[in-house]
Design a protein that fits this description.
alpha+beta, 4-stranded antiparallel beta sheet, 4 strands
């Protein structure tokens, strides 16, 4: 699971907006490859995007690190990231096989 929190400086929203189309395109590619299982924007109390949460499935940490080298929200200095291993529960793994 990747938690990517946007910066809190005055240029953070502009960096997110500038990188968003490339981020979405890469996410679409990863989803089609079965590597991005779910993604969502994290919102503040006013509904403003302040980060992202992604459930990813890579074969290795080195493969994940290779993706991070080209992820627009990383290369565009949008996210401060925290990556944690998780296990998708059986209710959801059955949905992926359907």
């Amino acid at each position: 699971m990747l938690l990517g929190y946007d910066g809190t400086d005055t240029g953070s929203l502009e960096r997110r907006t500038a990188a968003r189309d490339k981020h979405i395109a890469l996410g679409d590619k990863l989803a089609a490859e079965g590597k991005m299982l779910f993604g969502t924007a994290i919102l503040d109390d006013d509904g403003t995007m302040i980060g992202s949460m992604l459930i990813l499935e890579f074969d290795s940490r080195s493969e994940l690190d290779e993706w991070l080298k080209v992820e627009p929200y990383v290369t565009g200095d949008v996210w401060h990231i925290d990556i944690r291993p998780v296990r998708v529960g059986p209710s959801f793994t059955r949905l992926r096989r359907a």
